[in-house]
Amino acid sequence: MGKLKVLHYINQFYAGIGGEEMADVAPELREGAMGPGLAFNSGYGDEAEITHTIVCGDSFFNERLDEAKELILDMVKSVKPDLFVAGPAFNAGRYGVACATIAYEVLSQLGIPVLTGMYEENPGVDMFRDKLYIVATRNSAAGMRDAVSKMVPLSLKLARGETIGASAEEGYHPTGVRVNFFEKERGSKRAVKMLLKKMAGKPFTTEFPMPDFDRVPPNPAVKDITKATVALVTSGGIVPKGNPDRIESSSASKYGEYDITGVMDLTAETYETAHGGYDPLYANQDADRVLPVDILREFEAQGKIGKLHNKFYTTVGNGTAVKSSKVFAEEFSRKLVNDGVDVVILTST
Amino acid sequence: MVKEVERAGIPVVHVCTVTPISMTVGANRIVPAVAIPHPLGNPALSMEEEKQIRRKILDTALKALSTEVEEQTIFEVE
Questions:
Q1: Domain ranges within chain A, ordered by starting residue
Q2: Contact A295/B51 with Cβ under 8 angstroms?
Q3: Using CA atoms, how far apart are residues A231 and A313, in angstroms rounded to an integer?
Q4: How many domains does chain B have?
């Protein structure tokens, strides 16, 4: 078998045509390799060769999608490559979307093996990760050498129809496909090895990665709580009786800010809950059970705290989008900072 | 919300009943509460007994805010 014939897709920038001002150029088929294609060709050696390159402006592709797809597919048909490689696009959004979109067209319409590469936050990854192999790259072209070194062997395997290993071995973004296999060593042995590495402070790879949660490190403790201004915040939906701002009982779209100047105790006549996700009886009888204004007034009078802030913030944490809660809290936290609040007690039901 | 308050630079204590959720959400100072519909009260008790529970929980909350923590910490109510 002779050298595999590879067709490479790149944008106007990597073709050396120009930057944003040239992003409108229409697709163009050129002979030979150019730009990053040269690095691919040296990686392919005698195994394969980029014989043609398609250059297309990123804006052209994304704004005139159907036209671009049609023009490029015609070019691919005329070249009849064994393999189609796009990018790598790193963290360039439009380029990444173009690479993944056209690679998927070539794969699904023409049945030619395809491969692209980009950074994990490139929108092209989430759009196409379950449809084709996308090699994980760094976020800038400084990672070109690394990207090419992963894309060359994986693309050859794809072109030859060989079995593709797990994402961690081959370096592509996980596709969501799980494959059962037998490990060489049994679980107990692997677990002990991992533990020994961990105890020795050496790097180890978990077999069960936890989802990625955003963490905020704790702030330093308050120096003197008896001088501190304490603010109350709740996701328990406590509002003045009648819910004047009509905070929704679930999937809240807003939060409330209410003045408690001079309020010593929350009563059934003055406050209630707007929350639809728990039995409201107890909170409606005595909202201090959720928003403890009465005791904090007591603490204020005894000098256990400096003072209770004269406003509280409230919303309904019931099916409310994390994104919304984040926006609410970003906003009222700025107000709390501006008002000189030292600490917050946040209650949840 | 607790995380955004923390991010804004204000020490915050999360008083809640389901502490595993609080851990998952990323609260750093956590004080366990009584029950979901009445985290700082207990309708089975007299008003004065309820207030006593509320005082204890809030004392613990103030203690949590006055304590340096390196990682997520649950402060049990004494």
A1: 4-170, 225-347
A2: yes
A3: 9
A4: 1
User: Are A333 and B10 within 8 A, CB to CB?
Assistant: yes
Sort B76 into a burial class: Cβ within 10 Å, 0-12 / 13-18 / 19+: exposed
Q: Using CA atoms, how far apart are residues A345 and A290, in angstroms rounded to an integer? A: 11
List of chain B residues whose C-beta atoms are within 8 Å of the C-beta of residue A305: 62
Indicate the pLDDT class of residue A212, thresholds 50, 70 and 90.
Answer: low
Chain B residue at shortest CA distance from A305: B62
The alpha carbon of residue A176 and the mean position of all alpha carbons in its chain are separated, in whole angstroms, by: 15
| Interior/surface letters A78-115, b for 16+ CB within 10 angstroms, e for the rest | ebebbbbbbbbbbbbbbbbbbbbbbbbbbbeeeebbbb
Q: Who contacts A186 (Cβ-Cβ below 8 Å, separation ≥6)? A: none
Residue B45 falls inside a structural domain: yes
pLDDT tens per residue, range A87-146: 999 988 889 999 999 999 999 999 999 999 999 888 889 889 999 999 999 988 999 999
Neighbours of A167 (CB within 10 A): 18
pLDDT tens per residue across span B28-76: 999 999 988 999 999 999 999 999 999 999 999 999 999 999 999 999 9
Q: A292 CB near a chain B CB, below 8 Å?
A: yes
Is residue B77 a part of any domain in this protein? no
Give phi and psi for B53, each to the nearest 5. Answer: -60, -45
Q: Do A218 and B1 touch (CB under 8 A)?
A: no
Check if B52 contacts A (Cβ < 8 Å). Answer: no
What's the rounded Cα separation, in Å, for the pair B9 and B32? 23
Go through chain A and tell me how many residues it has: 349
CATH of region A4-170: 3.40.50.2300
At residue A174, φ and ψ (nearest 5 deg) are -50, 135
Amino acid in the structure at residue A88: P
Q: Which residues of A touch B39 (CB under 8 A)?
A: 236, 289-290, 347-349
Mean pLDDT for the stretch of residues A308-319 = 93
Can you give the C-alpha Rg of chain A in angstroms?
30
Q: Cα(A109)–Cα(A91) distance, rounded to whole angstroms?
A: 27
Question: Which amino acid is residue A114, in one-letter code?
Answer: V
